[in-house]
Amino acid sequence: MTGSEETRFNEANVMVLHAVTGITTERLRRVHLRPRSSNALYLPWYAERPGGAFVHGDRITVTDELHRALQERDAARTLRWLLLMAHEVMHVEQAWRTGRNRASKWRFTARTVAGYVSSFLRHGTAAHRMATMEQEAEIGRTRMRELMRRTGGVHPGHQVIDLVLRNDVTGMKGFLDRNDALIRQLRSEFVV
């Protein structure tokens, strides 16, 4: 694998993203992950570091460096990638609310651009961060970060990162079961 192929979340990813965001496992399994180099517009227009992503319907296009994180078994990049994915899948859920056909993907993208323009007019250079849909999506990353912080710290050596890298479904199920009360608490503390 060269890192230029479209991929999907492994099952350990699906499990932890579902636990943190509440998005159904079926929807998470349908998400396509693409490297930036695979599209003509070279979206997202972020530097490789720290990296970023662009959502179009059920497709998340991510910077090439982050797209390769799991296959290269790089724990530090996987940590950045997982926190980013917890945010981006919330955008996928927003897109699902718009609809599931091709026209709906474009409606979602148009609505997103309009939301950023509106936010820019209100917040200037803080437009992206202050946009309503970004604040909603950021809840996913906040919950993931808090889960990690409260179970050993947000660092590349965290158990969740190891479980995701190894796609250890049994281990992830055990981790999520042991932390079920905390996950429920996080989902009630940080509400969309």
What do these coordinates show?
The protein has ten helices and three strands; from the N terminus they run H-H-E-E-E-H-H-H-H-H-H-H-H. The protein is 61% helix and 6% strand. The protein has one domain. The protein has 192 residues and is mainly α. Helix 1 (11-21) crosses helix 8 and helix 7 runs antiparallel to helix 10. It is globular, with a radius of gyration of 16 Å. A three-stranded mixed sheet has the order 1-3-2.
Number of helical regions: 10
Beginning-to-end CA distance, first to last residue: 37 Å
* Biggest sheet: strand arrangement: 1-3-2
Structural class estimated from helices and strands: mainly alpha
Main pleated sheet: 3 strands, mixed
- CA radius of gyration: 16 Å
Strand content of the residues, in percent? Answer: 5-15%
Q: Summarize model confidence as the mean pLDDT.
A: 85
Poorly predicted runs are none
Summarize, please.
This protein has 192 residues and is mainly α. It is built from ten helices and three strands.
Short descriptors:
192 residues; mainly alpha; 3 strands; globular
SSE inventory with pairings:
Layout: H1 11-21, H2 25-30, E1 32-35, E2 53-56, E3 59-62, H3 64-67, H4 75-98, H5 102-123, H6 127-130, H7 132-150, H8 159-166, H9 169-178, H10 180-189
Helix pairs in contact: 1-4, 1-8, 1-9, 4-5, 4-7, 4-8, 7-10, 8-9
